[in-house]
Automatic annotation (TrEMBL):
Subunit details: Heterooligomer composed of large and small subunits.
Organism in which the protein naturally occurs: Alloyangia pacifica
Domain OB-fold nucleic acid binding: 20-113
Protein name: Exodeoxyribonuclease 7 large subunit
Example GO BP: DNA catabolic process
Protein origin, superkingdom: Bacteria
Family annotation (InterPro entries): Exonuc_VII_L, Exonuc_VII_lsu_C, OB-fold_nuc-bd_dom
GO molecular function terms listed in the Swiss-Prot or TrEMBL record: exodeoxyribonuclease VII activity; nucleic acid binding
Length: 496
C-alpha cells in the first residue's frame, strides 16, 4: 500500500485507516528521499566539524537559512584533496539519505572541493593567521644556515627538472653530498609525503650508515595555487617549523608564496637560488683565502721588519762593552794604590795601642800573677774531673765545625754571585762586541782615509776600499796589500 496516498477529508476519523510502525514509516521516508534525489552537489559553508577516533568526519553544510548534516566516511576522508575547516565554502558531492534514529536527513559526502579560488585564499589566510599567532613565523626562532654543509638533503620529485637544476648548480659552485627523498609535489598525497620526508631526515642519526644532512631544501617548480596547495597544508608547515635541521623552502617561482615559506629558516625564489644559498662559490673562497694569506704574510713581514729596525736602533743606543768596565776598573786601580799605605798606617796604630799597656808590664809582676793563677787553677783542677771538660771540648768542637761549614758556604756564595755576574757581563760583552757581529758574516767597509762607508754611492766614489772581516782586513783598489791584518775596534755605527 502506498503510504503517501492522498486521503479524503472524510477519512480523517475513519477507524479503518491502516496503522504503521515508526520504523516502517522512517524506512518509507528513506526510500523516497534516496530514490528522488540520488547524487547531488551542494554548495555551502562548513560548520561544526567533528573528528572522532573512528576516522569519520561529521560536519554541517549551511547557508544563511538552512543547515544539512553531512558525513564523510573514513576511507573518503583520507583521500580528500583538502582538509575541511570551519567557515570554508565548499562544493560537496554525495547522496542524500536519512538517519531514522534521530528523524533527520543527511548527505553522505563522496567528494569535496573548495568553492573557487576565493574560498582557498580565505582558508589560507585563516590558517596563516593561526600559525602566526602561535609564533611559527617569528624571525627569532629561525636557525642560521651552515656556511659549508657536508651533506644536503633535498625533498622533491626525483623525475622533475628541479632536482637536475639543484644538482647542476651545486656542482658548479661547490660539490657536496646530496641525499634525495622522493615525494609527490602535488596531489592528494603530496602534503603527507613532504611532512614525512622532513621528519625522516630529522630522525637520522649524525654519523650513521645514512648520515643526517646538515641542510634541507624543499623544492618544487612553479604552478597554480591548486598545484602548490600541498605546501599550504598545516601538516607541512608544522613539520618544517619543528625541523632541527636548517631548512630552505624553494616552492614555485618568485611570485608564488606558500605557508612553508613563512615557517622555513630561509626562502628561496627558485630551486636554483636555493642551491646558491646552500653553498658558497669554491673559487671565490679560494681567492679570498689566497688574498687573506698574502695580507697576513705582508703584515708579518712588516711587523718583523719594524721590530728588527727597532732592535737595531736600541742596540746602537747601548754603550760599548769596554765603557761598561771603565769606571769599575778605575775605582779598582785607585783602591789598589791606597791599599799599601792603609795597611802600614793600620799596623802603626795597632803597634802604638799595644805599646801603651805593654809598658806597664814587668817580668816579676807577670811571674807573681802566673804563680797566683797557677795556684788557683790547681785548686780548681782538684775539684774538676776530666769528663765534663771532654764533653765541653766535644761540644765546642761540634759548634766550631758547624760554624766553619756555615762560614765556608757563605764564602762560596759570596764568591759565586760576583762570579755569575761577571760571567753575565762577559757574555753580554761577547754579544755586543763588533767581533761577534763580524763572525756572523758582516763586514766593515772603509775608504782611503779610514772613514767608515755606509752607502753604496760613497763606496763607488772612493778611490780604494778597505774591508774588515772577522779574521783580518783586505784592501781593494789603491795600494791594496791583499794580506789580512789584525782588526782594530770599529767606529760607532759601522756595522751592516
Amino acid at each position: 500500500m502506498d503510504l503517501f496516498e492522498d486521503d479524503t477529508p472524510g477519512d480523517a476519523g475513519d477507524g479503518n485507516m491502516p496503522e504503521f510502525t515508526v520504523s516502517e514509516l522512517s524506512g518509507a521516508v528513506k526510500r523516497v528521499i534516496e530514490g528522488e534525489f540520488g547524487f547531488v552537489r551542494v554548495r555551502g559553508e562548513l560548520g561544526r566539524i567533528s573528528r572522532p577516533r573512528s576516522g569519520h568526519l561529521y560536519l554541517d553544510l549551511k547557508d544563511d537559512k538552512s543547515v544539512i548534516s553531512g558525513i564523510v566516511w573514513r576511507g573518503v576522508a583520507s583521500k580528500l584533496e583538502m582538509q575541511p575547516e570551519e567557515g570554508m565554502e565548499v562544493i560537496a558531492t554525495g547522496r542524500l539519505t536519512t538517519y531514522p534514529g534521530q528523524s533527520r536527513y543527511q548527505i553522505i559526502i563522496e567528494d569535496m572541493r573548495p568553492a573557487g579560488l576565493g574560498a582557498l585564499m580565505a582558508m589560507l589566510e585563516k590558517r596563516k593567521a593561526m600559525l602566526q599567532a602561535e609564533g611559527l613565523f617569528d624571525p627569532a626562532r629561525k636557525k642560521p644556515l651552515p656556511f659549508l654543509p657536508e651533506i644536503i638533503g633535498v625533498v622533491t620529485s626525483p623525475s622533475g627538472a628541479v632536482i637536475r637544476d639543484i644538482l647542476h648548480r651545486l656542482r658548479e659552485r661547490f660539490p657536496r653530498k646530496v641525499l634525495i627523498w622522493p615525494v609527490a609535489v602535488q596531489g592528494k598525497s603530496s602534503a603527507a609525503e613532504v611532512a614525512r620526508a622532513i621528519e625522516g631526515f630529522n630522525a637520522l642519526s649524525p654519523g650513521g650508515a645514512l648520515p643526517r644532512p646538515d641542510l634541507l631544501i624543499v623544492a618544487r617548480g612553479g604552478g597554480s595555487v591548486e598545484d602548490l596547495w600541498g605546501f599550504n597544508e598545516e601538516i607541512v608547515a608544522r613539520a618544517a617549523a619543528a625541523s632541527k635541521i636548517p631548512l630552505i623552502s624553494a616552492v614555485g617561482h618568485e611570485t608564488d608564496t606558500t605557508l612553508i615559506d613563512f615557517v622555513s629558516d630561509r626562502r628561496a625564489p627558485t630551486p636554483t637560488a636555493a642551491a646558491e644559498m646552500a653553498v658558497p662559490v669554491r673559487m671565490e673562497l679560494l681567492a679570498r683565502t689566497g688574498e687573506g694569506q698574502l695580507r697576513l704574510t705582508r703584515a708579518l713581514s712588516h711587523r718583523l721588519e719594524v721590530r728588527g729596525q727597532r732592535l737595531r736602533d736600541l742596540a746602537r743606543a747601548l754603550p760599548r762593552a769596554e765603557a761598561l768596565l771603565d769606571q769599575p776598573r778605575q775605582r779598582l786601580d785607585l783602591l789598589s794604590d791606597r791599599l799599601p799605605q792603609a795597611l802600614i798606617r793600620g799596623v802603626d796604630r795597632r803597634r802604638l795601642a799595644l805599646s801603651q799597656p805593654a809598658g806597664a808590664l814587668r817580668p816579676g809582676l807577670l811571674s807573681r800573677m802566673l804563680a797566683t793563677r797557677a795556684e788557683a787553677l790547681g785548686r780548681r783542677a782538684d775539684r774538676l774531673s776530666i769528663r765534663p771538660i771532654q764533653r765541653e771540648i766535644a761540644l765546642g768542637a761540634d759548634r766550631l765545625s758547624a760554624l766553619g761549614k756555615r762560614l765556608d758556604d757563605a764564602g762560596t756564595r759570596r764568591v759565586e754571585e760576583p762570579r755569575a755576574k761577571l760571567d753575565g757581563l762577559d757574555r753580554l760583552l761577547q754579544t755586543l762586541s763588533y767581533k761577534g757581529t763580524l763572525a756572523r758574516g758582516y763586514a766593515v767597509v772603509r775608504g782611503e782615509g779610514g772613514q767608515v762607508l755606509t752607502t753604496a754611492s760613497a763606496a763607488k766614489e772612493a778611490a780604494g776600499l778597505e774591508i774588515e772581516f772577522a779574521d783580518g782586513r783586505m784592501k781593494i783598489g789603491g795600494a791594496a796589500s791583499g794580506k789580512p791584518r789584525k782588526a782594530k775596534a770599529p767606529e760607532q755605527g759601522s756595522l751592516f
